[in-house]
Design brief:
Order of helices and strands of chain A: HHHHHHHH
Largest interface: A-B, 27 and 26 residues
Number of helices of chain B: 9
Number of helices of chain A: 8
Structural class of chain B: mainly alpha
Order of helices and strands of chain B: HHHHHHHHH
Largest sheet of chain B: none
Structural class of chain A: mainly alpha
Shape of chain B: elongated
Oligomer: heterodimer
Strand content of chain B: under 5%
Chain lengths: 243, 224
């Protein structure tokens, strides 16, 4: 197994294989996105309480799932980078941060857009929105720390620690915010309890979630390839590639 | 030297240095008092409003004061090279980190505790909530120092670490703020506060056992 890890974790092999995979992955993404959007916008029924505005859920929920998933992915690659010093793991960590921040931002914006017709306000200190906001701050902290340290490898290792500390804290923050919310939530804003979802809505949602995951993987690979070339610009395999 | 003696020696050294520069010790306190004073000026002197806001305001101000004084945990030692020697010493680095954080809390956290009742008085917090305020600060501010130490360790090598430090650390302070302020809030309405205290205690136990390890790892990276 170790030989496998080192082989696929080595920059030239990673570069070559990811380059070969990417067109296929983008194709698959396009198919899933098309299917998911058709299901979300056309074939699925409007909600009996929320009407057409429920359709934003097909963007909001996958984005929110991704925002948490990417942070965990960052922490895992941070652990790998710290323990085994695998360069590709460092690059995955760094390249994930802006994508994760983007999905968190998307989840916040769509949540706010959905909140306007539902709650009558652009922003409500709802437990989930608030923890998403704090998650965004955590992402921005990661990006800021990485930007501030000049040496790339030191920066990556420092960010790994921050990501690990963050991932331990996220559940604590999440449950604290939820607890805080139950204390302060005014009774007039009743939280919309979702009944179990109808299959016509669930399928597009899951397809969209898969498409979003794939978008993350694809952009991650592209960013990682760019970062790899930049870091290894003086190494033989990059020079051979360029010539 | 045994672990215990190393711990005591390092903590005593930091305390001695701090006591030799007493005027610096007063700075976070002054900041704490001034921030709290700004609130009535900003929102108006209406007693009921101020009393309602008091738990949150005192806690946020304490949190900011703790944040501003954080850099002192490692930066002076980093600049004169002491920190490098500490990391190179034969003792486990997390233990030394814990000693430094304890000393730092005694210098900057404990004084906040002593001024807090005065500020609560300024804002008209009910007297019954005074005990809860002290107890929540007593359990909460060490967590702030412990968690903040990770941030300082990560940014100590940077020239302009201060701003980034607050970006890194403030989101991690959210749970302490929530439970600290809510304990005081509950006490001011004569509700039981045991739940909040237990959770703050749990945070302290968790932070005291885990953060020194993370801080030590971060220090090693910053010094590499």
């Amino acid at each position: 197994m170790w030989r496998w890890v080192h082989k696929y974790g080595s920059p030239p092999v990673f570069y070559r294989i990811s380059g070969r995979l990417l067109p296929w992955l983008w194709g698959l993404f396009a198919i899933l996105l098309g299917w998911g959007l058709y299901g979300a916008l056309i074939s699925s029924p409007p909600d009996y309480q929320q009407g057409e505005s429920v359709r934003i859920v097909y963007i909001h929920v996958p984005a929110a799932w991704n925002s948490m998933f990417i942070y965990v992915a960052m922490a895992v690659s941070g652990l790998i980078a710290l323990v085994w010093r695998i360069k590709v793991a460092e690059i995955v960590l760094i390249a994930s941060a802006p994508i994760g921040a983007m999905f968190t931002f998307l989840a916040l914006v769509t949540g706010s857009l959905w909140g306007k017709p539902m709650w009558g306000a652009w922003w409500v200190w709802d437990a989930r929105l608030t923890s998403e906001l704090i998650l965004l701050f955590l992402y921005l902290g990661v990006i800021a720390l990485h930007g501030a340290i000049e040496d790339r490898r030191t920066a990556a290792r420092a960010v790994s620690i921050l990501a690990l500390v963050g991932v331990v804290n996220i559940p604590i923050i999440h449950f604290s915010v939820e607890w805080w919310n139950t204390l302060h939530q005014p009774a007039t804003i009743t939280k919309f309890e979702k009944p179990s979802m109808h299959i016509d809505m669930l399928v597009p949602l899951l397809v969209m979630a898969l498409a979003f995951k794939l978008f993350y993987v694809n952009t991650l690979l592209m960013r990682a390839r760019g970062e790899l070339l930049e870091r290894e610009r003086d190494v033989k395999w990059v020079k051979e590639l360029a010539s | 030297m045994s672990w215990g003696r190393a711990f005591v020696a390092l903590a005593r050294r930091d305390l001695t240095i701090a006591f030799r520069r007493r005027s610096e010790m007063a700075n976070p306190l002054l900041f704490f008092v001034m921030v709290v004073t700004l609130f009535p000026l900003g929102v108006g002197p209406e007693p009921k409003l101020l009393a309602n806001m008091a738990p949150g305001v005192v806690w946020v101000a304490a949190l900011l004061a703790a944040l501003l004084s954080l850099d002192g945990i490692f930066r002076p030692d980093f600049e004169d090279g002491t920190l490098e020697q500490l990391v190179l010493s034969a003792h486990p680095v997390p233990l030394l980190v814990l000693a430094k954080v304890c000393a730092h809390w005694l210098i900057t956290g404990l004084p906040l505790l002593l001024v807090a009742p005065l500020l609560a008085l300024f804002l008209g917090l009910p007297e019954g909530a005074m005990g809860a305020l002290m107890a929540s600060l007593l359990l909460g501010t060490p967590v702030l120092s412990l968690v903040g130490a990770i941030g300082v360790a990560l940014t100590v090598g940077l020239r302009k670490g201060g701003m980034i430090l607050s970006l890194l650390v403030l989101p991690l302070y959210v749970p302490v703020l929530i439970f600290g302020a809510s304990a005081v809030d509950a006490a001011s309405m004569s509700l039981p506060i045991a739940a909040q205290m237990y959770i703050l205690g749990a945070f302290l136990a968790l932070a005291a056992s885990l953060t020194p390890v993370a801080t030590a790892a971060a220090l090693k990276i910053s010094l590499s």
